[in-house]
Amino acid sequence: MKSGNKSIRINGKSVEVTDEVYKVYTKYDRKMRYFEKDLKQERLVYDELGNIIKRVPSREDSLDRLLDESFMQFKDISENVEDTVLNKILAENLHKALDKLTDNEYDLIISLYFHNLTEREYAKRQGVYPNAIHNRKVRILGKLKIIRIKFANPSLNGK
Using an 8 Å Cβ cutoff, are 144 and 101 in contact? Predict the structure, then answer.
């Protein structure tokens, strides 16, 4: 090897090059390794005791990693304003309709649908047969349906 010349490894073979070529080669070799490895791998910063202080994520994200971590760039897309407003209006109408029920009817619907009691459990509390509770429930749900229809169409209130 001549003085001032250096060698680099290309495809496993040592090749003699000038200083100028060596500098350019090492510069671009390091740049290539940076893009291939450093950008794609996350790094961990440790304290003196070996505990992880901070995780420095890679600058290149893969779709798989984002899906694994349940990454959400934006708030839930499936949530839209129209559905939220409509659900609030329907809930408001339901509560208005529930207020029109008698105390016994109201208690039955609240127990079954809001307190998650079964018809058998409610029947046992009331001391009646479960089929009697079922028949009451069906009748009350029909009544609620009529009340809600009247709320939706105020012109039917006189009928």
Answer: yes
Domain definitions of the chain by residue range: 1-38, 44-71, 81-156
- Give average pLDDT by consecutive 10-residue segment, the chain, 159 residues: 70 86 85 67 75 73 64 63 87 88 94 93 95 96 88 69
**What whole-number distance in Å separates Cα of residue 106 and Cα of residue 115?**
12
Q: In the structure encoding, which two tokens stand for residue 117, read together?
A: 């009691």
Cβ-defined contacts of 137-145 (< 8 Å, 24+): 137/108, 137/109, 137/112, 140/101, 140/105, 140/108, 140/109, 141/109, 143/101, 143/105, 144/94, 144/97, 144/98, 144/101, 144/109
CATH topology of domain 81-156: Arc Repressor Mutant, subunit A (1.10.10)
d(CA 110, CA 121): 13
